[in-house]
Amino acid sequence: xxxxxxxxxxxxxxxxxxxxxxxxxxxxxxxxxxxxxxxxxxxxxxxxxxxxxxxxxxxxxxxxxxxxxxxxxxxxxxxxxxxxxxxxxxxxxxxxxxxxxxxxxxxxxxxxxxxxxxxxxxxxxxxxxxxxxxxxxxxxxxxxxxxxxxxxxxxxxxxxxxxxxxxxxxxxxxxxxxxxxxxxxxxxxxxxxxxxxxxxxxxxxxxxxxxxxxxxxxxxxxxxxxxxxxxxxxxxxxxxxxxxxxxxxxxxxxxxxxxxxxxxxxxxxxxxxxxxxxxxxxxxxxxxxxxxxxxxxxxxxxxxxxxxxxxxxxxxxxxxxxxxxxxxxxxxxxxxxxxxxxxxxxxxxxxxxxxxxxxxxxxxxxxxxxxxxxxxxxxxxxxxxxxxxxxxxxxxxxxxxxxxxxxxxxxxxxxxxxxxxxxxxxxxxxxxxxxxxxxxxxxxxxxxxxxxxxxxxxxxxxxxxxxxxxxxxxxxxxxxxxxxxxxxxxxxxxxxxxxxxxxxxxxxxxxxxxxxxxxxxxxxxxxxxxxxxxxxxxxxxxxxxxxxxxxxxxxxxxxxxxxxxxxxxxxxxxxxxxxxxxx
Length: 583
What we know:
With 583 residues, the chain is an alpha/beta fold. It is 38% helix and 14% strand. It is built from 21 helices and 15 strands. The chain has helices at 10-17, 40-47, 60-63, 116-126, 129-134, 157-163, 175-192, 205-218, 231-242, 258-262, 272-275, 278-296, 309-322, 340-351, 356-372, 381-391, 409-420, 430-440, 444-449, 493-502, 523-535; strands spanning 20-21, 30-31, 57-58, 68-75, 85-93, 103-108, 135-140, 224-229, 247-253, 325-328, 334-338, 377-379, 480-487, 506-514, 544-546. It has a 10-stranded mixed beta sheet, with helices on both faces. Strands 11-10-12 form a 3-stranded mixed beta sheet. Strands 1-2 form a two-stranded antiparallel sheet. Helix 8 (205-218) crosses helix 9, helix 13 (309-322) crosses helix 15 (356-372) and helix 14 runs antiparallel to helix 15. The protein is globular. The protein starts with 9 loop residues before the first helix and ends in a 37-residue tail after the last strand.
């Protein structure tokens, strides 16, 4: 690494010290302590890279009205900015009131591997009109993913399908599935550490944060405005800690515990996706739904009409563990086999939506009814639809740059996950880890735990020497707004508490709401986020919002979203392999 001496003018420190933070309360506005500064090494990496020109072009025929697209070349390795590059794709929705524009709002939907291009294209459907008036909205596909240059760990789709065949279950049950899952995990790690290089070793979140800082200069902003969901919260957190004096407004919603994601030497023996405690979050949400179903009774919850919901759920799980249920179509032809693991994955998918309690009710009522009929074969259009959605190949636009017929989404997810975090050495270690996770979060614990098995460090050997592992305690120039949802099934509320406790200039906004992430679930959360992004005002300490949608409080089919029911929710991508944006 080349050392670069940066001459910092004395007035730069003074300006940082005079940064204004609004503190709500009787005392009014007070001057905040000075922010931490971007390190000399980090500034040297990014500031010597010229701001690239995306050559914006009209892409409205592919992505919707007023959208503009572009691509830029960014360094594969910021320590060697004049050598190899990788192409990064961007999409912009220009501000509707350009004369009053505040700057650019960057978005990330999660994943890792979610498309920033696609969430930016969807911005007019879920962001408030005030944000759309005052900001250009920009999303970029993180390096290696989607419309950006794709990481590819296998020579062709056939080789990929063969190597990853053992990963075709939500999580393995029994010796045969476990052996196949481990074998494919090892093959995955070896392929991405050989064929997938060098890009697979240059996809850590730190590299994406560096890309975002260069793009911040590209759009002409002195400081970053950012709204990130799910895994996008880790990207926002890493940016805030790498470039603390370059933060204008950063909102992270659906927060990953950054220390759990990165790991420490003391926790490296625990799989990365177990450390996050997402399994516990999903299990807690499901059993709260069952408890509220019991309280509401059969008028509002169909499952309660068949018996005690917790008992019925336990019976369903025991039955599917003993013998899967064969689902047939209208002609009697078998379509798929509903296993215990598949049902758990369906229920997790249900819980991603604020209205997910109703989907849980429908699914469990249906399965209980089918099992009570006494057979192992049944016709069920809803379950067939879920199965087809689970296994459908993601539809990918050919607007620019995407390879065909190779789908790199498995590599896109794992290349970020595995370069970011510490993990056990051998994939076999996921077997006892899964058993421990199952003990505290039955079903959901193993589902989340096994997601990181390809990251076993003896087979996933490619590393990013410039990945960021902390600390996550730097003081930013402006507060970071940390939004946590009590009943989020993917990002444990404890992750938001942890992130906020680490960031000295942050505010935790809690939400008693359902589904994955909180923006759009109530006027309370949405207005707080909008106000912060527009005016820099953070909500009062201890603020707790209540989501419009609460389980089994209204008759089925009744609209509950009061804040902005005409607007969609953000198309967030949960942190699981193969997860699609929430529709």
